[in-house]
Specification:
This protein is 38% helix and 12% strand. It has 325 residues and is α+β, with helices and mostly antiparallel strands.
């Protein structure tokens, strides 16, 4: 019975936030924003709630934040989360799986931009669509430490933050609890807090009909499509907390000058963003899938460096890769 219910929710509300690979080049918000005095409560007025209808929560969350980013600059626009999601799928290394990495979508939102809904729905793929995306590029992104005070600072100073956490069946009913059997990771926008109760307020991408009032009790002050959650319920699980802000150019240039450092164990059958990085390093066909040719190239690297030639990118092989890089 549990599996039947679980599969029902997975099919109806598929999640799509894959945990970002570790990257030492990531810029932390503390590098250019100092703490300020915080109010006890804060709530940012948000653009209308969207309904994702699939596994595109990363695209929907970042598109909503981008709309608010441009609104602060005096520009009102409805951006296409589907455009951002589909562009992310072209480069995330898992094209045959639903969902994507927040870091991939963030890079696209900054480097390529996000098309408006009008442009995405009316223009064919080509120069016109690319020109529209170029109008709506974010100024940068930064990461936030996983602690309540840092997250409140990020929300207050930047209006919003985005983050993902595991959800289980109870989450659909309006309660976040300790995850017993995860349905996957979900990406949301956080846009408020109540420091008296150590809670966060966020906006979901499941439309206004979702119950959206959660913290272990019903809170009528939380608007439909939004939610409230106790920090203690997600503190051990929340990851990939990001803000979108105008990052100083010198920090971006310094990060670009650093090499990528491998951090994930990879083997035959692995796939994703870091597999693509590995294939780029090995100078072989890049598709994000660790298949026979990738395994052969890894064995060749291991043999040349006196390692056990098992074709698995473990700690010793990563040390060789990172040292050579």
């Amino acid at each position: 019975m549990f599996d039947f219910i679980r599969n029902f929710f997975v099919k109806k509300y598929p999640r799509g936030a894959l945990k970002n690979p570790e990257d030492s080049r990531n810029i932390n918000i503390s590098a250019f924003q100092s703490p300020v005095s915080l109010p006890r409560q804060h709530l940012t007025k948000m653009p209308p709630v969207k309904y994702q209808g699939g596994s595109e929560c990363v695209g929907f969350s970042i598109a909503v934040v981008a709309e608010l980013y441009f609104l602060r600059k005096g520009l009102t626009v409805e951006l296409s989360p589907i455009d951002l999601y589909r562009e992310s799928k072209k480069i995330d290394g898992i094209s045959d799986q639903p969902g994507t990495y927040p870091i991939v979508a963030a890079k696209i939102a900054v480097k390529q931009g996000i098309a408006s809904v009008m442009a995405y729905n009316s223009l064919p793929e080509g120069d016109l669509l690319m020109k529209d995306r170029a109008k709506y590029k974010l100024g940068g992104y930064a990461f936030v430490n996983s602690n309540y005070d840092a997250l409140c600072q990020a929300i207050y100073q930047n209006d919003t933050a985005t983050a993902s956490f595991n959800v289980d069946i109870n989450w659909y009913l309006g309660i976040i609890g300790k995850v017993l059997r995860s349905l996957g990771r979900h990406y949301v926008v956080l846009h408020g807090f109540d420091r008296d109760s150590d809670t966060l307020i966020g906006q979901n991408s499941w439309g206004v009909n979702w119950i959206g009032q959660i913290a272990g009790f019903i809170n009528p002050k939380v608007a439909p499509g939004h939610f409230e959650m106790a920090w203690q319920d997600v503190a051990s699980d929340i990851v990939d907390i990001m803000v979108f802000a105008d990052v100083p150019k010198e920090l971006i240039d310094a990060a670009k000058g650093l090499p990528y450092q491998f951090s994930t164990t990879m083997r035959f059958g692995s796939m994703g963003y870091e597999v693509k990085k590995l294939q780029e390093y090995l100078k072989i066909s890049v598709d994000g899938n660790f298949g026979g040719k990738t395994r052969e190239a890894v064995i060749k690297l291991q043999t040349a460096n006196g390692l056990v030639a098992d074709g698995i990118v473990g700690a010793n092989t990563r040390a060789v890769l990172n040292k050579k890089i």
